[in-house]
Structures are given as structure tokens and as C-alpha cells.
Predict the structure.
Amino acid sequence: MFSKETYIKRRRAIKEYMKSGIILITGNGEVGTDYLDNTYHFVQDSSFRYYFGIDRTDMFGVIDIDNDNEYIFGYDFTISDIIWMGKQPKLKDEGSNVGIENVGSYNDLKEFLKANSNREIHYQPQYRGDNIITLCDLLGKTPTEIENGSSEKLCYAIANQRIYKTPEEIIEIEKAVNITREMHLKAMQTAKIGMREYEVVANIQEVVNNHNCTNSFPTICTTNGQTLHNHYHGNTLESGRMLLIDCGVKTIEGYCGDMTTTFPVEAKFSPKQASIYNILIDAYNHAESILKAGITYKEVHLATVTKIAEGLKSLGLIKGNIEDVVKNGAHALFMPHGLGHMLGMDVHDMESFGEVIVGYNGEQKSTQFGLSSLRMGRVLEDGFVFTVEPGIYFIPDLIKKWKDEGINSEFLNFEKIEEYIDLGGMRYEGDYVIENGNPRRLGMKMPKTIEEVEAERAKAYKN
């Protein structure tokens, strides 16, 4: 938890932006896995934690802008709770720690909202069914009315505040990035032919636990990198395959890291693997070289996929004018996703508000295949923290579909592409902040080049 002044300052800023009405921010509750008391790992709503700081279940924050009052509604632990959990803080003390003296129960909140039902009540979009049901009870509305009634103005207010990371936030994110780096190094230094993917995941998870962190998202560890988000961990690591690791941690303070590496199952890259990997890293380096305040991230994305297309053309997989290749989206056969996303208290920061609000600041997204998956296209500014994550994939079903239907056939050499179809997929991801107009990659130096990666892979086969 940050200082009391941090949370007071954050709430003051959103009051100044919103100007009037009531802001209601819902925290999260626990959810049972197979019965009520056997719960999934609890994750607090990031906006609640951002403004109210409390990381426990069933809390509600209210900011009454017109009367300049702030409240936390929740509950105090009973003696039955304490028997099982040990001594717990009082709600009043938790409120005081973040500069709020007005606290009450769920029923108090219900009465407060009922008494103020004639006023404008702003709440954020809900991504959990239990919170939708709770808001139905609190506001006397149907689930459809709750889903359609969230405040776009509040979403913009929160997004335009949380998107600018303060120095204390950047410190926390960098902690997460450095632990995430350890996760990747552990995988590089231990993965060997004959292991199962889940054994590599176990080694990665050891790093998370050793730092008293949690995962910022479920770890992707797969020799089938052509499946973009592959959470299956049952394959055996075999000679000739690449292992793609996409993972990250969330620190105890609630900030995330997110990085991706891809490396050969063997100690060294094969010539074919190296030819594609070098194109990937050239594209990543090019993206890094043009990052700056004032450029749109859509421009960075398009420049990066252009670099990938140029590299693939040099191998004979793409043909024709590169500008036309990118304009027509032919490159998306190999990279059907966007270059990156915002990073912060959520691994895709504030994505529950929608990509148009957070990633595009109200501008509409492209509908073109590939470009439509770009989560962020807005102008980069100081304080933005985001990922850079180019990829190159050989997806058999997608290749077959495009070949059979003649999609972008004037730009694609399918006969040559099919020579690489067993390569799978690869991507490389780093986390960046814009400071004083310039980019800085967060965290300590990370292996990137073939030589650097092979140096780490040699450690796995040392004994």
C-alpha cells in the first residue's frame, strides 16, 4: 500500500474531472471453485485498489462529489472469522489508512444509494456476474440495465488518470518486470529435451512463489507457439521445436509484469529457426528505435509489421511491393495480433473499460484482420507503460484457409511458406515506459539476440 496522501490525491483528481454526481466503485468478492468456502485466488478490482487501497473482499468505495464526502462500505470480521483467520484490522482503521473516516456496512450503502437515487450515480463496467447481481440489488435495476448503464464518463476519467504512471508506480512495475525476467531465465536455464511443458512451468512458478508474488495471468509455456494463447502444458519437449514462454507476476502491491521469450528446445537454434528469429528481433529493435512521445502506437505497429514483411520477403515467403503487402494485410498471415498493450495494475491495463477508451482515446479501431487486434493505437505520452511484442507464426489452419480461398495470394508464396509450417510460432516481448519523451525498457538486461539466448540455453545442458 502506498501512503495515505497518494490515495487522497488520486480521489481528489477524479472529483475534479467528474465535477458532480456520485462515483460508486465496486471491489471484488470471493468465488467458490466447487463449494462456497473453497475459493479461487482473490484478485481485487484494480480501480478499487487504485483509489481506496484495500485488498480484501466485498468492499465498495463511494465518492460523493457534490458534498465532498468519501466512504468505504464493507464489513468487520466476526469472532468466527478471526478463529479461522487470526486477528484482522477494523474497517474503520483500514479506511483511516487511506484517508477515509466514513465507513459503513453493505446495508448502509444500500440506504445511502436509495436516499440519493435521484442523483447521477456513476459506476464502472462490470466483468463479473456476482458484481452485476450485487449492483442489481443496490440500484434496483435488471442485469441488462446494469450492463448498459455503466458510466462512459467515469471510464474516461479513470483511464485518463491511471494511464499516466507516477514514479512510485513505475518502481513497482519495474519490480514486477525484474521478477518476470527471473521467470524467463529460469526456463531458459532448465528446459531440456524430454521434459514436459508442465515441468518447465513448475520451475517458473518457483520464482513467483519465492518472491511472494502471484501470476499476472496464467503462464503460457508451449512448443506449439503457433497457438497464440496456448495454456496446455502436456507436451514433451522434442528436438527441433521452439519453446514459447509468455508469463509475468503481480507484486504484493498489485502491479504487473509481462514478457515473452522464445528459444530452441535444443541448446542452439537451427539455421531455419535462426532465420525467422533474426527477423523477429530486427522488427523488435526497429519498434524500440522509433518509440517516442508524440508518435501513435498504430504507427509503431505498422512500421514493425513492415519490417517483418521485408524480412520474410528476403526468404521468399512474401512477394510484391511491401507497402501494398501491409496495406492489404497480407503480413497478418504471420502476425495476426497487435504489437502491444498498456501495462499496470492489470496485465492489459484497464481493458475492462474497452480498448477504444484505453487504447485509442475514443478513436475507432480498424476492422482489418490483424490490425483489428491492435489493442492500443493512441499517441504515446510521458508516463505511459506498455508492451512491445512482435511475433511470427506459421498457423496451419490459417495458411490452408488463405491458400484455399486465394486470400492475398498475389503477395504470398504458399509453396515456400509450407516449408516452414512445422516451425510453430515465436514472439518476443519487453515492457517500456516513456520518460522525458523517450522510451526506456524496464528491468535489467534481458537475453535477446541468438548469441545471448544460446548462452543461457547452454546452462541447461551443462551437466
Summary: The radius of gyration is 24 Å.
